Amino acid sequence: MKLRGCLADCSRGGPTDMTPQTSAVSHNQQVVAVGGDLVGSSQLHNRAEVQAILKSSIEKVNSEFASLLLVPFQIVLGDEFQAALKPHALPDTLELTWRFQCLLYPVHVRFVIGLGGLDTPLLENPGEMDGEAFRRARDALMTSPGTFYQMRIVTGDAVVSELINHTLRLMEIVRSRWSDHHWEYVIAYQDAGTQQGASDILSVSRQAVSKGLNIASYRELRKTREIDRNASIAYCRNQMSCISPSATYWVAFRTMQPSRLHGQEVENAFRDA
């Protein structure tokens, strides 16, 4: 994946105003850099249609995750897109990127994510921004050359990053075995919120939806995603203390209640620290 701007060469909720929040971040303050790329898009015959779906998906994600964005997602070159998020948004990048995957299926997307400082001001074009976050995203891109992955994260702690990335890889392996029907069941279930709702969307029995979700290991994957999210929250919290993120990682995420954790909670902690 070739990423434009600093990701390419770094050797050195609801509708809202999408103007970059230049007053929200000073130089060297942390941001989350996210880069996405459509997999195998050059081989698609319906590129114009896919490009239109990509633009529509970006608009939806920018709207749904507006409170997390410093610079909204934009296409920077071809089918590559980037954004800069608030530092507390790291835990929510898992849901954000998964939203992209579901919106764009059957086209797959590869993501690289870096958490770190920002050396330039916030700019309207995320491809022109520079800093530690973008260099770490590039590091994620260069990790394990020749090995395909759909998402990699680089934080300031190698142990946390490695653990999150290993679980992400395991989830990718499971999803790689999904049939089109499994994807349909999962996406319909997420859109409807219930198995009955999914069965109505797909015009199949509720039992068929339940069986499809079980075969796809959907609940196990969702729980694993929650664990990765909690790991990110633990890392963000421990960044504000003198305790090593690696040393407290297991205790932190095992004692958390995922349903009660939100990016806003982490943002409040950043502000109050």
Describe the structure.
It is a single chain. The chain has ten helices and five strands, in the order βαββαβαβααααααα. The longest helix is centred in the C-terminal third of the chain and has 21 residues, at 218-238. The chain has one domain: Reverse transcriptase/Diguanylate cyclase domain (Alpha-Beta Plaits, 2-Layer Sandwich), CATH 3.30.70. α6 (195-202) packs across α7 (206-215) and α8 (218-238) packs across α9 (245-254). The relative contact order is 0.13. The chain has helices spanning 47-64, 93-104, 132-142, 158-175, 180-192, 195-202, 206-215, 218-238, 245-254, 263-272; strands spanning 30-38, 69-77, 80-85, 109-117, 151-154. It has 273 residues and is an alpha+beta fold. The chain is 48% helix and 14% strand. The protein has a five-stranded mixed β-sheet with strand order 2-3-1-4-5, sandwiched between helices. α3 (132-142) links the parallel β4 (109-117) and β5 (151-154).
Key terms for this structure?
single chain, 273 residues, alpha+beta, Alpha-Beta Plaits, 10 helices, 5 strands, disordered N terminus
Order of strands across the widest beta sheet?
2-3-1-4-5
- Rounded to an integer in angstroms, the radius of gyration calculated over CA atoms is 18 Å
The CATH homologous superfamily is termed Reverse transcriptase/Diguanylate cyclase domain
What proportion strand?
A: 5-15%
Q: How many β-strand stretches?
A: 5
Oligomer: single chain
The number of helical runs is 10
Main beta-sheet strand count, sense and barrel state: 5 strands, mixed
Helix proportion range: 40-55%
Mean pLDDT across all amino acids = 78
